[in-house]
Write a structure and sequence with these properties.
Radius of gyration: 37 Å
Strand content: 35-45%
Number of strands: 46
Number of helices: 6
Distance between the termini: 17 Å
Shape: elongated
Helix content: under 10%
Structural class: mainly beta
């Protein structure tokens, strides 16, 4: 059995990753760095995809991380610069284009512009660079350069966007709203000539003079004349007459009849021109291309065949005059009556555009299988990450849990319980007159519309009429519009209960309540910030966040420091970065040891940061540097800010050593390939 994983699905996977950043219950992705101990080998090793590497070692060696924003992540495509004299593949619905150069990137310094090749002029080389200044009017639909290539402008990226996400190999995809809005579903942009045919002589051109126009006052009849005109009746019937300059330029009509007599040669058009041709209007007559759809098209496509007189009157190009709308089946044929004497019929194949039209979905149309993350670690990130030492590993962590978190809070109703779960809520009120009690799970509301308002499993928030009692729970079942069953018994009784959709977006567990305005939490998932309401699932207590404190520092959840942190003093010597420090008589007999990341001095005070810790450093005991011999004493300690092993490490990459320092920003680019 064989199966196909389509490029569309590969693009979809990348899109899902991007969308997960912005959904209501969004995923938290953090870029992290690790490994400050310099590797001894000159070769950068490949990370192992096993549990020890991805769940244990990575946390023991992790240094710090920063949350990714939606602006830090883009879908990406291969960077294919336009180069004069190069072959470029034309877009073709029957071709596998993933690894072919069917689009180009043109560097115009301030911007890079992306163009899709819709026609490569018979597989010739490109010698005329697309020029963005020409992308106006009809050129926004199809832009033809002097070398005969026809391009579709897709989008542009600024120099800043390229600097953040682009490389010599990849560039980001950034939709152009105007291009997307003007795409046409089921349009025909190109009709490919599979065989050019022979002896299509039913073409001519000329210039109208006053006596040629609207013969006998009939707006449908025009006289035509030139030295090469065929006199055979019907010879140009079913052709298109196109006004290419002068009054009415751009209009065209089908010739319903052509005849010659002693007075001249005449064409009868199928209906009158909207703008009457005048003396001096030039015209072209070409074979009409008959386009047949499945009958569900909503606007008819119209095209004419251009003839090469130097190549046995063969067809060298099909020009679309109307692209049509809604063509999801089509055929095309060049029309020539029998008296024309065609000796070999041209073979045409309309190229199906992407379903929604060219430019509607550039990532999908240009075979994006990659996601680029462009990120910066800006100095200390507002004093929340260390600026010392170096790192040799970088990765992405998904939905980690935070620990050692405290909230200063206000407007508390009720008393929170130790170990209970709290929920951050953003409630939306549904009803105000529900009845609940503490002896059952039933909730009744005579004016309710529960069948339309809620679903089984939804989280709901209930509040008493005096605003002093609260409860958060889930919907277990919905009997009808006015009655539902809760997952637990009510924790208060009230006949005027307000019912809210809870809209929970973060959770945490109470470690202990320090006082009436501060609590400590562990296993914090999601983000809490100033003004956020939270409620306990057992106590029903409710309060609002005033300040978030992590490891005794006021800071939110945008960054984390995964090193062990110790406050103390240096009593002798100078510690060395990366050395082993220990408590005890010797390193080999130590009760606790760790790798020293850095020591930050502030007068006689010192802050030690360590990784790879074994055992627990005791307060007031001496810590000794195994290499430097330096000594110090710690007076307080703080653990890493993430719960070890929490979340999912979704990527790890070993890199050349990156040295950190004050007033330095590291800009990094990570690429992920979702191709087969």
């Amino acid at each position: 059995m064989t199966k196909l994983i389509t490029t569309k699905f590969q693009t979809h996977i990348g899109n899902q990753l991007l969308e997960s950043l912005t959904e209501t219950s969004n995923t938290a992705y953090y870029a992290f760095v690790a490994e400050h101990i310099p590797r001894t080998a000159n070769v950068i090793p490949t990370p192992l995809n096993n549990e020890k590497t991805t769940s244990i070692d990575i946390y023991r060696n992790m240094i710090f991380g920063k949350r990714l924003k939606s602006s830090d992540m883009k879908l990406a495509i291969r960077n294919i610069p336009w180069v004069s004299g190069s072959h470029y593949t034309m877009y073709d619905d029957e071709e596998v284009l993933d690894d072919k150069d069917f689009y180009v990137v043109v560097d115009e310094i301030a911007f890079r512009h992306v163009y899709k090749c819709l026609d490569n002029n018979g597989n010739s080389v490109s010698t005329s660079q697309p020029d963005f200044s020409h992308i106006v009017g009809s050129n926004t639909i199809l832009y033809e350069t002097a070398d005969g290539f026809r391009w579709k402008y897709m989008y542009s990226i600024s120099a800043a966007e390229y600097d953040k996400f682009g490389t010599a190999s990849y560039i980001p995809v950034i939709s152009n709203n105007s291009v997307t809005a003007n795409s046409v579903r089921g349009a025909i942009d190109i009709i490919k000539i599979e065989d050019s045919g022979k002896n299509y002589g039913n073409y001519t051109e000329g210039t109208f003079v006053g006596s040629d126009l609207r013969i006998g006052g009939n707006s449908l009849i025009y006289a035509i004349s030139n030295s090469t005109l065929k006199q055979t009746n019907g010879y140009y019937t079913d052709c298109l007459v196109y006004l290419n300059s002068g009054n009415g330029a751009g209009e065209y009509k089908t010739i319903s009849n052509y005849y010659s007599n002693s007075s001249g040669s005449y064409v009868v058009v199928n209906n009158a021109f909207l703008t009457d041709p005048q003396n001096g209007t030039t015209y072209q007559i070409n074979p009409r291309v008959e386009i047949t759809g499945d009958g569900f098209e909503t606007t008819n496509a119209v095209a004419r065949a251009l003839v090469n007189s130097l190549a046995t009157n063969s067809i060298y190009r099909v020009e679309m005059l109307e692209r049509g709308v809604g063509y999801f089946y089509n055929t095309a044929n060049v029309i020539a009556n029998s008296m024309v004497g065609v000796t070999l019929n041209a073979n045409l194949r309309p190229i199906y555009s992407p379903v929604e039209g060219h430019g509607f979905n550039p990532a999908q149309e240009l075979s994006s299988k990659h996601v680029c993350i462009g990120l910066e670690f800006s100095n200390s990130e507002m004093n929340t990450i260390p600026t010392d030492n170096s790192f040799e590993k970088i990765g992405i962590l998904c939905d980690p849990k935070f620990t050692n978190v405290a909230f200063q809070y206000y407007d508390a109703n009720g008393v929170f319980q130790d170990a209970e779960k709290i929920y951050k809520i953003n409630p939306v009120r549904l009803n105000t007159n529900a009845t609940m009690n503490i002896t059952s799970q039933g909730l009744t509301c005579v004016s309710g519309d529960f069948l339309n308002q809620l679903s089984v499993g939804d989280s709901i928030y209930l509040k008493s009429s005096n605003g002093l009692a609260h409860m958060i729970t889930n919907v277990s079942s919905i009997t009808n519009a006015t009655y539902l069953t809760l997952a637990t018994n009510g924790i208060f009784a009230c006949t005027e209960t307000s019912v809210y959709q809870a809209n929970t977006s973060a959770i945490a567990y109470v470690s202990n309540t320090a006082n009436s305005t501060q609590m400590f939490f562990s296993n914090v998932e999601g983000q809490f910030g100033t003004g956020d309401a939270f409620i306990g699932d057992k106590s029903g207590a409710k309060a609002f966040v005033n300040t978030v404190i992590r490891n005794s520092e006021t800071k939110g959840f945008e960054t984390f420091n995964q090193l062990h942190k110790y406050i103390g003093i240096v009593t002798s010597g100078t510690y060395s970065e990366d050395e082993l420090i220990f408590q005890g008589n010797t390193a080999s007999t130590s009760t606790a040891n760790a790798s020293l990341f850095s020591v930050a001095l502030n007068g006689s005070n010192a802050t030690f940061y360590t990784s790879n810790q074994v055992g627990i450093f005791s307060i007031s005991n001496t810590i000794t540097g195994n290499t430097s011999g330096a000594t110090g004493v710690i007076t307080s300690r703080f653990g890493p800010e993430l719960v070890c092993g929490s979340g999912k490490v979704i990527s790890i990459e070993n890199i050349d050593s990156v040295e950190r320092a004050n007033n330095r920003t590291e800009s990094l680019k990570l690429f992920y390939n979702f191709g087969a």
